[in-house]
Design brief:
Length: 119
C-alpha cells in the first residue's frame, strides 16, 4: 500500500491518489479553493503544545515521535482519525499525506507514514 508524503506547496501530481492534509493549522497563504486536498484530518495532527515544543528541531525528532505516538494512542479524537486514515489507506491503496512544514524529514507526516506502512 503506497503511502507518500508531500508538502502542500508542491505541485499536485497525477499519482497522488487521495490527498489528506494532516496539519492542525491551515497552511499559510493558501485558500481552500486553491488547495487540492480530498480531506483535512486536523485532529490526527500533533497537539498545539507538542507542536510548539518540537518547533521542527531535528534534535528533538526522536522524542517528538514518541510523544506524538503516545498522543495518537491516548487521545480519543486522534485515535479515531488515525483509524479513519488507516481505512482510507486500506480502501484506496494510494494515499498522499499532505503537510506544510519546511523540513521534509522531521514532521508529523513522516511519523504517520511509518505507522500506516506497518499496518
Amino acid at each position: 500500500m503506497p503511502v507518500t508524503i508531500k508538502r502542500i506547496y508542491d505541485e499536485v501530481g497525477k499519482d497522488d491518489g487521495v490527498r489528506v492534509l494532516v496539519d492542525r493549522l491551515w497552511p499559510r497563504g493558501l485558500s481552500k479553493e486553491k488547495v487540492k486536498v480530498d480531506c483535512w484530518m486536523e485532529q490526527v495532527a500533533p497537539s498545539t503544545q507538542l507542536r510548539k515544543w518540537f518547533h521542527h528541531d531535528p534534535e528533538k525528532f526522536c522524542e517528538f515521535k514518541e510523544r506524538y505516538k503516545e498522543e495518537l494512542m491516548n487521545e480519543k479524537e486522534k485515535g479515531l482519525q488515525l483509524e479513519e486514515l488507516k481505512s482510507l489507506v486500506a480502501e484506496y491503496r494510494n494515499v498522499t499525506l499532505i503537510y506544510s512544514a519546511k523540513d521534509q524529514r522531521h514532521n508529523q507526516a513522516v511519523v504517520l507514514k511509518e505507522i500506516l506502512e506497518r499496518q
